[in-house]
Description:
64 residues, mainly alpha, Arc Repressor Mutant, subunit A, globular
Amino acid sequence: MLLSPGELECLQWSSQGKSAGDIGIILGISPRTVAFHRDTARAKLGSRIIHQAIACLAESKSRR
Length: 64
C-alpha cells in the first residue's frame, strides 16, 4: 500500500530524529497531525513501532 505524501514526509523527518513537535513546526501542522500520519504509515507498513516503519521506508528506498 502506498503512503500518502504526509505519511511519507513525517516518516522521513522521523528518520532524521525529529520529534512530533519539531516536525509539526517544520511542516506547519500540529504535533497530533504528525502523530496521526506516523501512526497510519506504521499501520500501512505492518509495523508495531515507528522505528520498524522507518526501517521499512529505508529498505524500500534501497531497492529502487
